[in-house]
Amino acid sequence: MEDKDWLILKTLYSKKNITRAAEQLYISQPALTYRVQQLEKEFGAKIVSRGKTGVEFTPQGECLVQYAEQMLHELRRTKERILSMNDQVVGTLRLGVSASFARYYLPPLLKSFVRQYSGVEINVKTGLSSDILSSVQKEEVHLGILRGNHSWSEQSLLLTSEPLCLIAKDRIDLHELPSLPKINYVINDLRLRQNIEKWWMERFSVPPLITMEVDSIETCVELVNSGMGYGIVPHMSLQNHKSLFVHNLQTKSGEPIIRETLLIYRNASLEFSVVKAFVDFMGNNLENVVG
After folding, report:
1. Which end of the chain is more exposed for a tag (fewer CB within 10 A), N or C?
2. Domain of residue 135, CATH code
3. Rounded to two decimals, what is the model's pTM?
């Protein structure tokens, strides 16, 4: 069993389809099928079977996939460790980044980092903060940039702390909010959502008049900008909308309701020169980008 077989098994297990797996691996379907047959001969067991919905792995096959994933992980870490033994900062930096942070802040940060460390290749995965947290825990990425509150016991660096804002196309009387249409941006952060609900209940005895519900900050802001109602969004999303009416939310005691962005990573990751360089870079250069 060779290292290319590890990748074949992992990809086929992920795609559950011979054609799509072969396309991703840039090999022909017959070549992929042949390698799987050779592995079955080597281990004396049936690895996969073809069903109506695609490829299904046998228990023996799933055992081999688990082994393949472990070996690929160890091979990658060994390569990274060897590269880090040199004095130069070189290699691949794997980042998991919250989609909203990636949209507003990541491009200039990466451009500046690569300019400083030309020997580093950047691999970026964007998505929900909960998914990025999972990727860091599984060591699929070196570092994660998360929005909101998450349970994390290892290293972290506070990147931003921004207010949550009520926005509208024109100035509104906050006392009239219960009768005004609200464009509800669905926030996945449970604690932040509870803080918003508490803010509302401290001021009003009736629920908000929600007329639209969206899962995208950008969609919410654009609808507000079109005069379709008011919304509550993080301040980060207002960079290109300076003309909107903005009111920063505060608790009854006058404390701002904020949303934090954290850079998280495992303690052991600092042994890799590319990770240490990026952590130091973020600590020293973030203000130049986010202000």
Report:
1. C
2. 3.40.190.10
3. 0.70
